[in-house]
Amino acid sequence: MRGAIGLVVGVLLLAGCVPEPVAVRPTAVAVPRPGGLTRFQQCLGDLDELGIDFQLVPAFSTAEGCGFADGVKVASDGVVLNRPTALSCELAVAFANFEYEWIEPLARRYLHQGVVRAYHAGTYACRDIRGNGKGLSEHAHGRAIDLIGFDLTDGTVVNVGRDWAGPGPKSEFLHALAKHACERFDVVLMPGHDSYHRDHLHLDLSGKKYCG
Question: Is position 62 within any domain?
């Protein structure tokens, strides 16, 4: 089955608490007009079509303009994340598809192993863009995830900060993964982008295309 992503409800996230994920179907979402669905409702349908169990995350916002109204909590049934996290429904769908289309196939192609766990450094975080301070980061709306590595089925660990620049199949896997991430996500920032991204791959859905 396709992988998914653990999520936490906004209040618990801000408090630093991490509950055990529980797979629960949400109650039916009201349709605002006959024959029409909101973008969020369509996204929830996509998650359901992917076979992913999920919960809705209550909408929240902060005085700084952070927060989101389209959050979900997903119980992973394939490649799991190292810790639960909160993110937008759109990013949850994009990452689930990315895992199915590229993470697992590329790991088998270059490393001859499957992926059992993906490590991330965060999704939602109420902060500005690092390095220039020009407005809120996509993390502030749960539309970005920072990948830092993977565990393979034989216990091998792939770490972006350590293996990106080195020779060999791990580096080849990470570079191929970043290349295909540019096809799935709007912005992909790699370790060579700047010092803030030296140890992870930043993937987001900002609506502005950039790969590098």
Answer: yes
Give pLDDT tens digits for 6-38. Answer: 433 343 333 333 333 333 434 434 344 445 789
3-class secondary structure for the chain?
CCCCCCCCCHHHHHHCCCCCCCCCCCCCCCCCECCECCHHHHHHHHHHHCCCCEEECCCEECCCCCEECCEEEECCCCCEECCCCCEEHHHHHHHHHHHHHHHHHHHHHHHCCCEEEEEEEECCCCCECCCCCCCECHHHHCCEEEEEEEEECCCCEEEHHHHCCCCCHHHHHHHHHHHHHHHHCCEEECCCCCHHHCCCEEEECCCCCEEC
Structural domains counted in the chain = 1
Rounded to the nearest integer, the mean pLDDT of the chain is 82
Domain membership of residue 103 as a residue range: 10-211
Give domain status of residue 83, yes or no.
Answer: yes
Average pLDDT over residues 64-84: 80
Is the predicted pLDDT of residue 187 greater than 60, yes or no? yes
Query: Does residue 2 form part of some domain?
Result: no
